[in-house]
Amino acid sequence: MNDIIVMKFGGSSVANPEKIKNVALRVTEKAKKNDVVVVVSAPGDMTDDLIAKAKSITDTPDPREMDMLLATGEMQSIALLTMAIKSNGYDAISLTGPQAGIYADDVHTKAKIKKIRPKKIFEELKKDKIVIVAGFQGINPNDDITTLGRGGSDLTAVALASALKAKECEIYTDVKGVYTTDPRIVPEARKLERISYDEMLELAGVGSQVMMARSIEVAKKYGVIIHVRSTFSQDSGTLITKEVPNMEDVVVSGIAFDKNESKVSITDVPDKPGIAAKIFGALARANINVDMIIQSAAQEKYNDISFTVPKGDLKNAVGLLKNLSSKLGGGSVIFDDNVAKVSVVGIGMKSHPGVAARMFSALAGEGINIEMISTSEIKISCVISSASTERAVKLLHKKFGLDKVKK
Amino acid sequence: MNDIIVMKFGGSSVANPEKIKNVALRVTEKAKKNDVVVVVSAPGDMTDDLIAKAKSITDTPDPREMDMLLATGEMQSIALLTMAIKSNGYDAISLTGPQAGIYADDVHTKAKIKKIRPKKIFEELKKDKIVIVAGFQGINPNDDITTLGRGGSDLTAVALASALKAKECEIYTDVKGVYTTDPRIVPEARKLERISYDEMLELAGVGSQVMMARSIEVAKKYGVIIHVRSTFSQDSGTLITKEVPNMEDVVVSGIAFDKNESKVSITDVPDKPGIAAKIFGALARANINVDMIIQSAAQEKYNDISFTVPKGDLKNAVGLLKNLSSKLGGGSVIFDDNVAKVSVVGIGMKSHPGVAARMFSALAGEGINIEMISTSEIKISCVISSASTERAVKLLHKKFGLDKVKK
Questions:
Q1: How far is CA A151 from CA A161, B113, B337, in A?
Q2: Is residue B297 pLDDT above 70, yes or no?
Q3: Domain ranges, residue B377
Q4: What confidence tens digit (pLDDT) does each residue in A314-331 have?
């Protein structure tokens, strides 16, 4: 057998017959030298259209039936792509998630993959067939079709690549790879040749929307090499791999930012054990995703607690906290939705002290005020005023030399 | 357990959310007193749209992939209908053909049902659920989804009714039942309370498009009582059952007609054994469906052979026969596509001689020329000129008293 390559194409790549034929060409080219397994999403806006159809029947569609409905999108993609590949003179077969042996748990509409039994896929590869698998779906312990939630097709691709011991998992997108920052803001942004899982996780988590964090975590866990590349170009893209020694030469890999943030503070919270747990427990129960959290002792026996939440959750969070603060004997609740988060990401910073200091002084030098700071081993994030975001990103991109090609 | 009723709704009954909600109401009403299994087709024109999509990829779509594609139509219907039923406060579950235990052969796009294992359906009925099954599909010996060809959803319903020992198989359509003839032509046409399988087969075969012959044959074989009725009315429709004694009082049940006919004749064919086999063998190999066949000895040692074929096959048939006739030493090939077939159908005519004579004299009395005649135990068909069709149907409907309500 040849090396196995998993190729994953998103919905925009199979939105119409012309695009499906283009994907078929990419696949048959690859199949000349490799055993190929393809994962596809539903065509174009079909998933959204189906959700709208369900909502026109009832406001609260049954989740099992929602999965039955949504699974049809990927089934159409795999059937049409397989027809296109066969009409190019290559043998191919489409498999639904259940047929491909993708076993999931029974949480409908957001199931987790439990295991993969790739027997059928191997059988078909041995018959020299290209195997086209429906992304985003699996079979649950009740033998029902289930879907894997947002980013599910990437997850299918990465999990299959692991189960098949594929050489590489290629994620085809409408961008050429992972960039040092958003090229729409910094024209000098460079495509990265290679990035580590952890760096990609930080970039994905702070607004670089190439892949969902979930799939990268699975790739990291099982050591799957991901290759993010363009559907419309032959150029190689960005490899996402485990950390390799020469990576350490690169201190900073990219600048990420997220404008979908707002800042909330509760002042004068009594400094007693269990207070933070009460506050963040209440937010969690309301399904409000809290990101950066900072607690500062403004005066003895009282703390100010500040954190960021997505803009869409701000109103709920503030309402909930005003109630809670009076119960806890805290002070006022202050909020600001004109903020953004800017992050410097790089594995190299673990062994290069001073990255934070350079970041802060760069921002200060341009008169950009830092409202909050949080750090991890490979990331430093600052909350700044929203209006300064683009200026800060450009500045940091240049300051850390990301516009210069590395050796 | 209550009596089981199978309800089948076609694509036009589930074409949009409003119609799906209407079907859900019909189903939940029925479920108050019965255990209900529902069979649904793909919504509206979806099957045709999907076929068009496949054709825009390739002129010769792979049949297995075509089935993967087409099966999504019924899956969308069952999911949406089940959501609608559940939002009415009834418990329900959708099952694909494979999940419902419908096992088919491996002839993709026109599979035959081999057996039904209704274990899962019974389990769900015992949990007091309404079971919604995708029509037109099953699973084949390779564990692939396959479709059952034209009229496949009716077939699913009838086969399930048999396997579940249902009290009745209700076929919901946009007409109120089976009529003595087409009400668009004869306003006095009456809805029949009851008709035998054999009569229905003759009516279906000669142009009454309520149900395909295939499903009626299966219903006859397994004794399934079919109830053809309207989606939009509470009135009962027409029962299709086995022949019962009091049926014999009714000599003629209906007048059928088919304008999609053309007549072909080969003159002066040598009267030797095996000639007819050669002619009709050649037509069969060309997939041309021959209906009425008449052979007459015009003169010693030579025959004229006439038969009817669908209008769409006429050109092919004539081309093929011109070649063949010269090889066989036959004469010229004559054709006429301005013909129609009018049939009088009724189980009672088996024991009432003279029906044929009454038919011929009625047509003659109006100056309508009969070009061909064929008879079976329960049907007499005449080929006449196409222009006279409506006049002949009206005349025969009146002549056999079909406009008068029977006791």
A1: 16, 38, 59
A2: no
A3: 255-399
A4: 999 999 999 999 888 888
Task: Please judge whether B53 and A143 are an interchain contact, meaning their C-beta atoms are less than 8 angstroms apart.
Answer: no
A52 lies in a domain? Answer: yes
The domain total for chain A is 2
Q: Residue B38 has what pLDDT? A: 98
**Chain B neighbors of A97, CB-CB under 8 A:** none
Shortest Cα–Cα distance, A8 to chain B (Å): 19
**Residue A292 amino acid letter:** M
* Contact criterion met (CB below 8 Å) for B70 and B41: no
Residue type (1 letter), A360: F
Asked whether residue B14 falls in the same domain as residue B109, the answer is yes
Question: Which pLDDT does position B246 carry in this prediction?
Answer: 64
pLDDT of residue A145: 97
In a domain, A349, yes or no: yes
Chain B residues whose CB is inside 8 A of the A89 CB are none
Confidence of residue A174 (pLDDT cuts 50, 70, 90): confident
CATH number of the domain that residue B308 is part of: 3.30.2130.10
Q: Confirm whether A149 is domain-assigned.
A: yes
* pTM (two decimals): 0.85
* Segment A203-230 mean pLDDT: 84
Q: Is the dihedral angle over the CA atoms A388, A394, A396, A397 positive or is it negative?
A: positive
**pLDDT confidence of residue B407:** 40
From the CA of A53, how many Å to the nearest CA of chain B? 7
Q: Three-class SS string for B304-337?
A: EEEEEEEHHHHHHHHHHHHHHHHHHCCCCEEEEE
Q: Does B76 touch chain A (CB under 8 A)?
A: yes
> Which residue from B54, B57, B96 is facing A21, i.e. has the nearest CB?
B57
Q: Which of A42-46, A236-240, A304-308, B19-23 has the lowest mean pLDDT?
A: A304-308
**A86–B62: do the CB atoms touch at under 8 Å?**
yes
Nearest CA in chain B to A60: B87
Check if A15 contacts B (Cβ < 8 Å).
no
Does B405 have pLDDT greater than 80? no
A388 within some domain: yes
**CATH code for the domain in which residue B10 is found:** 3.40.1160.10
Q: Looking at residue A255, what is its pLDDT?
A: 93
Indicate the residue of A21, A54, A75 with minimum beta-carbon distance to B72: A75
HSE-up of A111 (CA within 13 Å, CB side)? Answer: 32
> What's CA B187's distance to the chain center, in Å?
23
